Structures are given as structure tokens and as C-alpha cells.
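Saturday, quiet lab. Running sequence design on the C-alpha cells for the scaffold JK sent over.
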């Protein structure tokens, strides 16, 4: 498989559409944290839309970069970093409001910091590494887990009006636990895979 290497200059500089979408994830991450810290029904609903929008930019920045031929080294570096900022912001805020244990956030954060530090060191050495398959799967698993938790917060009722709804909430809460556990396992595995392949 031939690697596609398009320079920043050919990609019309830093301010092209894919990179603008990448930057928007960082801005939306800040908005998301503010909304979650409101701890209100309105804030939770808005947080769902903000997170979904930010997650879609992750797909479209790569799509436009490939289809319009403006893949750049800057984009290859910033795209995974913007993903990490968005997801760590969401996970940190959710841990802070008690949706899951802090150790889950800590494990994911340590992996992300170590991999990002490694990428930046390699960038200083002239190597630009695009995200690998395991890393992309990890990101998708985190997005699914966060999305499920955010939706749970929107529909959660402290005092369910019926036993049926109470049972649904319990099942949904258990599902969220499994999704977060899967995200942690995939996060750790992708980190091990990254360092094993970069030796």
C-alpha cells in the first residue's frame, strides 16, 4: 500500500477546511465541559448535541482531507491531538460529576499523554505518524461510551414513574459500565500496540 504524503503547502496552508474542523473540536470540548458542569437537564441535552457535532467533525476532517487532496503533516499531528482533547475533556467532566470512577479517567489519560508525547518527540525527529487502526478503534469505543453516558443523563429520572422504566435505567447503567470497561481495555491495548510497533 502506497503512503500518501502531501505537504502543508500543497494543502493550502494550515487554515484549510479539514484543519478548521479539527480546531473546532478543541473549542467544542471547552463548551462541552461548561455544559456538563452546569449539572442541569438543559445543559445535558445541549452537551449531547455538542459532543455529537464534535464527533462528526472527526469523520469529516479526514474525509475532506482525503477527497480534496489536502492531507498535511499538521493535520496528521493535530487530528489525534484534537480527539484526545475532546475525549479527555468529556471523560474528565463525567468522572467529576460521578458518572464513573476516577481511575478509569486516569488510565485513559495516562495512555493518551504517553502516546502524544511519543508522537511529538518523533515529530521533532522529522517523523510524522498518522493514527493507526487500533488507535482509531479505541477512539470509536470511547465516543460510543461517552455518547451512551450522555444520553443516559438526558433520560435519567431520579425517581422513575414506573418499575419498567426503573429496570431500563438499571440495564442502561450496567451497559454504560461495560462500554467504559471495553473502552479502557481497547485504550490500553492500542497504547501497547503503538509502542510495540514503534520500536
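Result came back. Writing it out in full:
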Amino acid at each position: 500500500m502506497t503512503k500518501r504524503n502531501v505537504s502543508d503547502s500543497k494543502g493550502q496552508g494550515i487554515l484549510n477546511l479539514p484543519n478548521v474542523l479539527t480546531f473546532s473540536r478543541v473549542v467544542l470540548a471547552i463548551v462541552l465541559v461548561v455544559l456538563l458542569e452546569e449539572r442541569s437537564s438543559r445543559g445535558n441535552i445541549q452537551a449531547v448535541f455538542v459532543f455529537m457535532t464534535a464527533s462528526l467533525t472527526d469523520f469529516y476532517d479526514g474525509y475532506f482531507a482525503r477527497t480534496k487532496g489536502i492531507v498535511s503533516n499538521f493535520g496528521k499531528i493535530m487530528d489525534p491531538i484534537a480527539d484526545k482533547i475532546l475525549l479527555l475533556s468529556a471523560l474528565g467532566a463525567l468522572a467529576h460529576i460521578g458518572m464513573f470512577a476516577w481511575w478509569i479517567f486516569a488510565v485513559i489519560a495516562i495512555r493518551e499523554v504517553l502516546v502524544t508525547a511519543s508522537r511529538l518527540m518523533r515529530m521533532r525527529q522529522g517523523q510524522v505518524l498518522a493514527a493507526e487502526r487500533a488507535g482509531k478503534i479505541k477512539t470509536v469505543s470511547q465516543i460510543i461510551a461517552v455518547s451512551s453516558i450522555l444520553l443516559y443523563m438526558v433520560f435519567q429520572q431520579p425517581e422513575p414513574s414506573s418499575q419498567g422504566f426503573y429496570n431500563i435505567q438499571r440495564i442502561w447503567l450496567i451497559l454504560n459500565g461495560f462500554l467504559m470497561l471495553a473502552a479502557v481495555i481497547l485504550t490500553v491495548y492500542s497504547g501497547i500496540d503503538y509502542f510495540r510497533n514503534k520500536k
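Notes for JK: The helical segments are 17-38, 41-67, 73-96, 102-124, 133-155, 163-197. The radius of gyration is 18 Å. Ask whether to fix the surface positions before the next round.
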